[in-house]
Every structure is written in C-alpha cells, then in structure tokens.
Write a structure and sequence with these properties.
Layout (H helix, E strand, L loop, with lengths): L1 H37 L4 E3 L5 E12 L7 H10 L3 E6 L2 E5 L17 E6 L5 E12 L5 H8 L2 E6 L4 E5 L6 H10 L3 E9 L7
Antiparallel strand pairs: 1-2, 2-4, 2-5, 3-4, 5-6, 6-8, 6-9, 7-8
Length: about 200
C-alpha cells in the first residue's frame, strides 16, 4: 500500500512540474514575441557594465500615496488602452504605441519612466531619471551640471561620485555617451531599477 501511495505522489509531482514548466515556456514565448515587436536600437550600459536595450514603446509609472494601489493604477492603464506587461514593486510596466502625456494625468505619480531590457537575463529594468557620474575632480560638479542641464541630487565627495537628476524627455542613452566622452568624467551610467519586491 505504501508503494502505491509513493508512486501516486511521484506521478502527481511529475505532472505538477510539467505544468509549471509548460506555463514558464508559454510565458517566455509570449515575452519573446512582445520583445521582438518593441525592441529599440539604443543600448544603455548600466552599473558593472551590464548591457540594457532600450524599449521605446514601453513605459512605467509608479503608484503614489497610500490611496493608490498598484492594482488601481493597473486598472487605470488598462482602461486607457495601455497593455500592462509587468510589475516591479510599486512600478507598473506597460506597452503603448504613442506616449500621450495627457493620458497619464492622475495615474500614479504622473511620471513616465523609460523601460530597458537586460540583454543577459531578459529582465525588465526601469530608468529612474538619475544619472550616476564618477568625476575626476569633485570641484567640477557644478560646471558639469550647468553644461548638461542636469540637477545635482547628491554628492559623495570621498568616492568622487555624484547623482544627477535628468529632466524628462532627455535621451539618457545620448547623455550617458556624452558624459563618458567628457574629460572631467571617469565613468557615467544611468540608475536602473531591475529587482524589487512585489507589493503584498
């Protein structure tokens, strides 16, 4: 009798594993088809030289305040015709062919964040609008901010590292390339959120 129970348990586990594997394969196929339709030409190099591909038809919004849950933002986006693709913490990632700023008034924090794809893991990442810059001399920070029209958020003098806020609409890929070519800069990369705990 014990042998029969063990065999039944093994068969059940095998079927469960196959169902999970099948669902994972189906999700990967769907994501691959989606990515083929929205992949852009620009690449962004993040921290630790990780390569990300820009997805111009994808954006993210951040649910803001205790009265606005990710589920509420998700419903608002779906009602507006956007295709919700994924969530990362309080960020909702979605696909929409044309970004219309009026569409997002009252949705989340009303800020559209660019979305990128990790070329190694195929995980989505969110460009926060913060540029991390390692300068050759911390005294050059103000002149760099003025030259590129970016706002100083925080300086870590002992690390010669500065966090700059980039204005909405600025092409972060081009900005990063320009900063890297600047003789006052040792390294530059955009802040990218890739791993966040999902809200309960």
């Amino acid at each position: 009798m014990k042998i029969i129970i063990i065999v039944i348990c093994i068969a059940f586990l095998s079927l469960s594993c196959q169902a999970v594997k099948s669902a994972t394969i189906e999700k990967n196929v769907e994501q691959s088809a989606l990515l083929k339709s929205i992949i852009g030409e620009g690449f962004v190099i993040g921290d630790n030289e990780v390569s990300y591909q820009h997805l111009p038809e994808m954006r993210a919004v951040l649910s803001s305040g205790s009265n606005e849950t990710p589920q509420k933002v998700n419903a608002q986006l779906s009602a507006s015709g956007a295709q919700v693709i994924d969530t990362k913490g309080d960020y909702i990632l979605f696909k929409i062919p044309l970004i219309n700023p009026e569409l997002f008034k009252g949705v989340g924090d009303s800020t559209n964040y660019s979305v990128v794809l990790n070329t190694l893991t195929n995980d989505f990442g969110i460009l926060t609008g913060v540029q991390v810059v390692v300068v050759t001399d911390i005294a050059q920070t103000d002149s760099i901010a003025i030259d590129y029209g970016i706002e100083i958020l925080k300086q870590f003098s002992h690390l010669r590292t500065v966090l700059f806020k980039v204005s909405p609409g600025v092409d972060i890929t081009k900005l990063t390339a320009q900063l890297k070519a600047d003789s006052r800069v040792d390294n530059a990369y955009p802040e990218i959120i890739e791993h966040l705990l999902e809200p309960l």
